[in-house]
From TrEMBL:
Gene3D superfamilies: Glucose Permease (Domain IIA). This is Peptidase family M23. Pfam families: Peptidase_M23. Residues 72-190 form the M23ase beta-sheet core domain. The lineage of its organism: Bacteria, Pseudomonadati, Pseudomonadota, Alphaproteobacteria, Rhodobacterales.
Amino acid sequence: MKTPRLAGQRAGIFPALLLCLSALPGPAMAEPRLAMPVDCTLGDTCFIQNYMDRDPGPGAQDFTCAGLSYDTHKGTDFALPTLSEMARGVTVRAAADGVVKGARDGMIDRRYTEAEDARIDGRDCGNGVVLLHADGWETQYCHLKQGSVQVRNGQMVRSGDALGQIGLSGRTQFPHLHISVRRDGAPVDPFTPDGDPGTCRGGDARTLWIDDIAYQPGGVVAAGFSVDVPSYDAIKAGTPNVSPLPGDAPAIVLWGYAFGGRRADVLQLTITGPEGRVFNTRQLIKKDQAQFFRAGGKRLKAPLPVGNYTGTITLIRNKQIVSQRQVTTRVD
Ligand SMILES: [Zn+2]
């Protein structure tokens, strides 16, 4: 008697249980789905300099098993090309609905050196926000601009709400948002939440992002014309493209600023004017470089022909174009 009754109960309960289960969030739905946390266009006005370190040992590798990371890096760095974009203001937004668990502002925007350690005093995140989401998930936003943080402890935020702006506070050497994703305190790589450390993500593996974020293995992030070779500090600050070039300029120079350079890459710089090619150079990258710039050009013995000039900067890896950027100027 027991057996049929149990079977009957099962038959009665099971459909209800199924309904219940399908209405509840499954394991995948309990995770936050993350929106783009910065107001910029990857590959154009910003780029990802570092991903989470997936190498369990002393080395560093990103989720594709390439080198866009550094040892023990526990987040993703959305970087701006120069300080001038930072000064103009790029909004950092909540990646998901949540409650503000912590917020800090008031730290100065200054490029990190070891001499800054005492001032920073362990506050490596700089001005930042921690959001608490459902089921023990957290997101943390670091290096925000001084005076830009606009949420306070306990405040509820919606996905996409402004939290502050990208800055240079805390332990950082370039303007960027570092975002960490954690579950129950453990770091999670939003690009490969299911991946085991030390493995490379397959092409069709799922991510936590609502909109797919294409992997860029390196790229040219800024370019311009000038009349002499600019300093690297000037490039990082945001050297503007000179246009028009003065007719009596002593030289015409094209510069390009790039990230994710690998040993044996080539950066090609080409200037084309109204009468054809003016200058071309291919410069070998001799070691891996997180960021670098190159410049090249021509001394002028006679004024340049009047007209429009195009500079093309191309990052080449294994004979394939990784990234290309064009900039124009004119001679009146
Ligand atoms: Zn970072």
